[in-house]
């Protein structure tokens, strides 16, 4: 992929407290829940199509943005790194990047180019956003762009391996139970 640019489908625009989620089986974006607390997505949040992460969902992406878009919009994101998140014991990595088609981010080529406070804000958001749900989120630091792209490759391969089973009724639950039993993807 040229300059680590990937296609993200936006689920949640920056500033929203509505947790919209895409459902691969119904092909719809639905409101999963309103965040329990006064927490707001600090970037554009979505996923990479045709990927499967260890939490049973497509690989997540959070991107810096100047002007929020809309749920369902496809955006080219230049990946700068990843946030190694563990959500309720499951590996739930977030790719991190910037809009590739916003000239304001042209000088952002890797994690070191991003102001520290913006990274701190995003990290803090993920550590806090489930606090009132009494769910534990851990972050094992940030990964480089290279690590992020490797993660993406693995999630694409996993999608190909499981897509037939995944699309059957109850398929996702079955796969998740299998992974748990084998200790796969646990943080
Ligand atoms: Mg996820």
From TrEMBL:
Pfam families: Pyrophosphatase. Keywords: Cytoplasm, Hydrolase, Magnesium, Metal-binding. The keyword Magnesium applies. It is found in: Cytoplasm. Mg(2+) 1 binds at residues 55, 60, 92. Its main location: cytoplasm. Its EC number is 3.6.1.1. One of its GO terms (molecular function) is magnesium ion binding. It catalyses: diphosphate + H2O = 2 phosphate + H(+). Catalyzes the hydrolysis of inorganic pyrophosphate (PPi) forming two phosphate ions. Belongs to the PPase family. Homohexamer. This is Inorganic pyrophosphatase.
